[in-house]
Amino acid sequence: MKARTSWSAPLLDVSEGEALGLLYVIRWEKEQNFNNVIFELDSMRVVDSFHSTRNYVSDLGAIIR
Question: What is the domain partition of the chain in residue ranges?
Fold first, then answer.
């Protein structure tokens, strides 16, 4: 098990902040060559956007892409 913490102070919508956190952790887990990683999120909007095939024209959509 590994852990990492980081801090930033952007002014974002809650869903955008959650998506940005997911983006950072996905990049980190790839750098660490982890396998079989399970991610848990609090925002159903982010989860639905992540699994959707739609292209959202928004800041959240840009982060998810």
Answer: 14-64
